Amino acid sequence: VFGSTDYTQEMNLLRDADIAVHSAKQKGGSCYVVFNQNMHQKVLQRLVLENELRRALEQHEFTLRYQPIVGLESDRLVGFEALVRWQHPEKGSISPIEFIPIAEDTGLIVPLGQWILQAACRQMVCWQTQFPAASSLKISVNLSVKQLRETDLVAQVEEILQTTGLPGQCLALEITESMLMDDSRVVNQRLKQLSDLAVQISIDDFGTGFSSLSYLHRLAVDNLKIDRSFVSNMFESQRNLNITETIIKLSQQLGLVAIAEGIETPEQLQQLKAFGCKLGQGYVFNAPITSDEATALVHHYAHHITAFP
To answer: What is the pTM of this model?
Structure first.
């Protein structure tokens, strides 16, 4: 930060230097950043959003959307992925892209994640009670790295399953590849304990991280979710097509279920079927929908529901 006559207090100079340091760290470090007033404005906006996020948790301003997961061969509903949304009383809908990173940085992702898990499980029990044919449906919930580090995570999941009455086999928890690199021993222990509850584990955004494939042999993992970037770019080059096919074949060889994310066109759907991909989700089936819309969908598919492979 360059000193100027605009600074009348030394603490303000240090504050702005600290903002520049934080910006450099966000870029990966080993670099420098020159402070400008836009940075200060962004910090203020983030602080406001952080305070509003804390209030939103207290005021129950969050809701869930449900994106259907479909069997590609059978064209039958197998479950939903629960996705959180924030309906701000003044600003309206706030994208998860804006508030999830803040929740991660502040640790608010832990109570938020716990609420998401409980609400999603409760909703699935409602569907199973209302539609007996839905007893095999599975609800999939994203797990943050901070949640995975919680020593009482397994106890939390077990308590939520007991209080909601949802069978463990009807829940899938999604983790990212980067979590596998965090502390493989602790992660493996957590995943095995969750597996003992019959809970499934999915590796989300597979193919975008840097984890060793050897982890897949050692960890209690059930599903590989093919990142939407591979699916949407399948036909842009032979290389992209080969990568998608390789991930599907890898899952088959390891006895895992491949789930393609972000399927948007019939052409993509047909190609994934030809590759032998088991499950998929995306706008070609449905966008994330409200609980009422999902209820209508479950009712529609009541006689066309199948279990995860």
So the answer is: 0.85
